[in-house]
Design goal:
By secondary structure, this protein is α/β, with parallel strands linked by helices. It contains 23 helices and 17 strands. The strands form three sheets. Strands 15-16-14-13-12-11-10-17 form an eight-stranded mixed sheet, with helices on both faces. The chain has a five-stranded parallel sheet with strand order 2-1-3-4-5, with helices on both faces. It has a four-stranded parallel sheet with strand order 8-7-6-9. The longest helix is centred in the first third of the chain and has 25 residues. The chain is globular, with a radius of gyration of 27 Å.
Length: 600
């Protein structure tokens, strides 16, 4: 089924789901498992989940626990939940299911009792999420609460009314889940409001089947749930590349002139201005913006600098390519300049011919359809799964400024007489430490998404990373880098494990490609040597496992004093004496005091 196809009835969804499952069996497709633990009958969404996940590029097989059996299913090691590997778990507790007398007794309670009563359910939800995290590395999706419908149409007038108490508890739950690595809020409340309270459910289905979802709501919820699973398991894009004429503004600047562009606070210019605002919001969520336009660069620079209605300015773009080259050429240049893969790009262009050409020449670039009417640009951006990111970490918030500083560094490099002079002029400073709960989620994020300089590309789950960090025969380490132009964030992750009493293996060694070639890998290798020798290692083993993307790391061990031990088509194994040949910390990088309390 293509992403454009969508069944129009429950029967069609059921047939499509069965066809997909049969195809998986025949082809041996790797299928993700989603376990649903709900306080209601959720099984009705099964075919919708299978089909909607497929439309998002994810093969997903749902499993449903008996409704209302949360602790029993989670805490019993013999339950079906644990019978096979689970990739994601959906926890869905409705207030009115878990506390059936809440609506009846709520009006008689004082404000403190109301808060306490609702918070009991919220705490149960958080406790379940914590219990799951102790037992599995699966992504945990937790539905927040939609205020149950009351007979009082004016409940929101009461600051201690049910609406406000429930919304306040949702915030408490969200804060608690933010402290649980790999746990995310599934916005049940927002979905209910979007669909509409009365349309969201069907009394007949509730009373007859204990399902709170009306038939038209089921595919809507399934798509949002599938999207949440995809968000958690598929890395988001890194850069949004936009065309200019009739995309970022209305009109053709080369023909109409900057003064005639449709861009302002009145229709139709307000449409394009809102689109720019939406792009700016994505930039603030850690996505890079870039321009690929067939235009005169000087004209574009003038518009970006002087047009009074522009929301986005030149400083908001990490790369600008305005010329008469094919856009595929410029997309390759953007990826090269930003040191990211083509599969990290999203390309937005109003011209269907340009979109088709990019899809044909650069199939790994995400190229969503933009509607003919620019009024649909913002909704199209809102529906773009490639920019789904569940939680912002420090590095996400600061990514644009980090890449802007990289531009300054490149300019400095071009003027330096040699590499060592350039590196010394950066005044780099590294902070190293061992993984703690404070940085666990960032460490896990890098393990999951780093491809180019990743020597083994072992995708350890978050629970396994936590276990390795606390075990006596292993260690998980990180390095954060800064220089005179700014903080570059946590850029290296390493895992070392004991092979025997004297040999330790570097299980994982990865580094952000933004800092390649700056001796950062040397500093981090020196730190891993320190950790291993402190634990009694006399030899360090390094492993390189080939993937389609990690060619930059293939010669790393050979050029860093390791001797090749074994070799196969997919794996190279090296060793180096750690006692007679300890690895030195590079002189061009200062080292700060070791700490594990660096914020993620």
């Amino acid at each position: 089924m293509s992403s454009a196809e969508s069944p129009s009835s429950p029967a069609e969804y059921l047939r499509a789901a069965r066809a997909l499952e049969a195809r998986w069996t025949e082809s041996g497709t790797r299928v993700l498992r989603l376990a649903a633990l709900a306080s209601f009958t959720a099984d009705f969404v099964r075919p919708f989940l299978v089909v909607e996940a497929d439309r998002l590029g994810v093969s997903l097989r749902p499993w449903f626990a008996p409704f209302g059996q949360f602790e029993q299913v989670v805490l019993d090691p013999a339950s079906s939940l644990w019978s096979e590997t689970t990739d994601a778990i959906w926890l869905a507790l409705r207030l009115e299911d878990v506390d059936p007398k809440l609506l009846e007794e709520f009006p008689e309670m004082d404000p403190a009792q109301r808060v306490e009563r609702v918070s009991r359910v919220g705490q149960r939800l958080v406790d379940l999420a914590r219990a799951l995290r102790e037992r599995t590395s699966a992504t945990i999706l937790v539905s927040n609460f939609a205020p149950p419908p009351t007979l009082d149409a004016f409940d929101a007038n009461d600051p201690d009314g049910l609406v406000h108490v429930v919304n306040a508890e949702n915030r408490v739950v969200a804060r608690a889940l933010a402290e649980i690595p790999g746990a995310h809020v599934f916005d049940w409340s927002g979905l209910s409001a979007h669909v509409g309270g009365r349309s969201f459910g069907d009394p007949k289905l509730w009373y007859m089947a204990r399902s709170p979802l009306a038939a038209p709501t089921q595919p809507v919820l399934a798509r949002q749930l599938a999207r949440s699973v995809r968000m958690a398991l598929v890395p988001a894009a890194k850069c949004i590349v936009v065309d200019l004429d009739n995309t970022l503004w209305g009109g053709i600047v080369g023909d109409d002139g900057p003064e005639a562009l449709q861009l302002g606070d009145n229709h139709p210019g307000s449409i394009f201005k809102d689109f720019q605002r939406a792009l700016l919001q994505l930039k603030r969520r850690g996505f890079l913006l870039a321009i690929a336009s067939k235009n005169d660069r000087e004209t574009i620079d003038t518009v970006l600098r002087t047009h009074p209605e522009m929301v986005l300015r030149a400083s908001d773009f990490a790369a600008i390519f305005a010329n008469w080259e094919p856009k595929a050429v410029n997309l390759r240049r953007i990826a090269e300049e930003l040191n990211i893969g083509l599969d990290s790009l999203v390309f937005l262009d109003d011209n269907p011919v340009e979109r088709a050409q990019i899809r044909a020449e650069l199939p790994t670039v995400a190229v969503p359809e933009l509607p003919l009417d620019p009024m649909g640009y913002v909704p199209a951006l809102r529906d773009l799964t490639a920019v789904d990111r569940g939680r912002l970490l420090r590095e996400d918030r600061e990514r644009s400024s980090m890449y802007a500083a990289d531009t300054t560094r490149r300019e400095l490099a071009r003027g330096a007489p040699d590499l060592q002079t350039f590196l010394a002029s950066l005044e780099m400073k590294a902070t190293v430490g061992r993984c703690s709960p404070v940085v666990l989620e960032r460490v896990h994020q890098l393990i999951q998404k780093t491809n180019q300089f990743n020597l083994t590309t072992r995708r350890h789950g978050i629970n396994e990373v936590s276990r390795l960090a606390g075990a006596a025969d292993s260690a998980v380490a990180w390095l954060r880098l800064g220089d005179r132009f700014g903080d570059m964030g946590l850029v290296c992750v390493g895992i070392i494990r004991a092979v025997d009493g004297t040999t330790w293996e570097i299980d994982t060694f990865l580094m952000s490609c933004r800092v390649m070639g700056r001796n950062v890998e040397d500093a981090f290798l020196a730190y891993l040597f320190e950790l291993a020798t402190a634990k009694g290692a006399r030899r360090i083993r390094g492993v390189f496992r080939r993937t389609a993307k990690n060619k930059p790391g293939e010669s790393f061990y050979a050029t860093h004093g390791f001797q090749e031990v074994t070799k196969s088509n997919d794996e190279l194994v090296y060793e180096r004496d750690a006692v007679s040949a300890p690895y030195p910390w590079p002189t061009v990088i200062a080292r700060s005091s070791e700490t594990s309390e660096v914020s993620s």
